[in-house]
Amino acid sequence: MRTLFVAGNWKMNPTTLEAAVKLAEEVKAGVGQAVNVRVAICPPSLYLYRMDEVLAGSPIGLGAQNMNAKPEGAFTGELSGPMLVDAGCTHVILGHSERRHGHGETDDLVNGKLIAALESRLLPIVCVGETRLERESDMTEDVVGRQLEHSLAGLTPEQMGGVVLAYEPVWAIGTGLTASPTQAQAVHAFIRRHLAAKFGEATASRVVVQYGGSVKPDNAAELLACPDIDGALVGGASLKAADFLGIFHAGQSVVAQGKA
Ligand code: 13P
Asked: Residues 234-252: what's their mean pLDDT?
């Protein structure tokens, strides 16, 4: 079965290495050696080498928030998969809506990065999700289906089994508006059906699909209890150790109540 997976996307925060180290140390202490809920933090890339040192001896994964599809070369300002691996990364977030909408990332670009990440043996977290206008126009499944179709193009079922997806409705990111458990579960079930049609039932049942969008300690448990929600990709609440650990503990309580 699928292990719940809670990841913190720190985005462009905090602004000093000292604050990043403090936050990572607090998260490390709070998670301890627990592995019944998997945890990763995704700090700004500038901090990765140091974060890897801080996380030594901890089961917490270390992720980047983006990467280039090329392994090296004349790509000013970019970072490659091999570099992220060298810095100690285990994970990489790809196709976050802030990159799709703010930096013009297309599904094809995300697909190239995804294949490169798998070649580098990074565990990708591929984000999909609709805007408010798309939801209001009843286009959520069209949009998410298209993102999945193109972002995951060319993957074998075996490769797909090693990819994490994150459903992040754009209207719920950083807004305090969380998708209700019913709304989120419906899209997660749609994602699972899409995966089953494309990659087969066995693969679809293995893929971890996180929910992201204003996840907080007080709404995490009911989201994580939904059958097709396998974790959370947390933005704002991952910047306070107590809040992030509160979400981690909500995951543990859901597991204790019988969710695998
Ligand atoms: P918030 O949790 O701040 O809404 O951000 C979600 C997100 O974008 C995680 O990738």
From this structure: 98
Per-residue pLDDT of 194-203, as tens digits, reads: 999 999 999 9
- Which CATH code fits 5-256? 3.20.20.70
What is the atom index within ligand 1 of the atom nearest the CA of 97? Answer: 8
Average pLDDT of the chain is: 97
* CB-ligand 1 contact for 9 (6 Å cutoff): yes
User: Distance of CA 149 to CAs 111, 117, 227, Å?
Assistant: 10, 18, 23
192 contacts: CB under 8 Å, gap ≥ 6 = 204, 205, 207, 209, 228
In the annotation, is 168 catalytic?
Answer: yes
pTM surpassing 0.85? yes
Determine whether 150 is an active site residue. no
Q: Does residue 215's CB lie within 6 angstroms of at least one atom of ligand 1?
A: yes
Could you tell me the distance, in angstroms and rounded to a whole number, from the CA of residue 115 to the centre of ligand 1?
A: 24
Crossing angle of the two packed helices 181-199 and 217-224, in degrees rounded to 10: 40
Q: Which of 105, 130, 168, 194 is catalytic?
A: 168
